[in-house]
Amino acid sequence: LFIICVHASYAVSAILDAFDGWAARTYNQSSRFGAMLDQLTDRCGTMALCMALCRFYPAWMFWLQMSTVIDIASHWLHLHATDLTHADSHKKSDNPILHLYYTNRTFLGFMCAGNEAFYQILYLRAFYPGPSIFGAHLLSYFAALAFPIALVKSLISLVHLVTAAQTVVKYDTDAILAKRHQTAKND
Q1: 38 catalytic, yes or no?
Q2: Which domain holds residue 140?
Q3: Number of domains observed in the structure of the chain
């Protein structure tokens, strides 16, 4: 019963997170603080789930940890890059992959839901793998179906990381060149 309550709470949390974002956009209540808090709570929730999964699946620990590291690092640097450049939103990007990811709500929702489903299925599978069908448990099949979505989501996060790093490097380079130009001008 406890596991069902925990799992249901996590699912309700994800639904409320989506509703909160929709309401903020619909009623023009979006803020930098809200965007940062949303990113932070999303990352912390996924990190906590992956920490539990590392306990249940020690053979997969490295990959679960890498998934978490990529998720946290990419979102942090992406949000930081948008703040440095004073971008209107962290959801605007010239990169075609990120542009699709953020402008196509169906694609974004599918990727986020599929990613969350993968980790939640693994969590449930640790307690009850389901009936055996053709030599594998039912939840193993569901995890296998959701895995490609989680993998693509991680690859998109790597794109986030690279484009954000490029943005920060360009910002730093421009600042250094402007400072050198100003110093040369003053001499």
Answers
A1: no
A2: 30-186
A3: 1
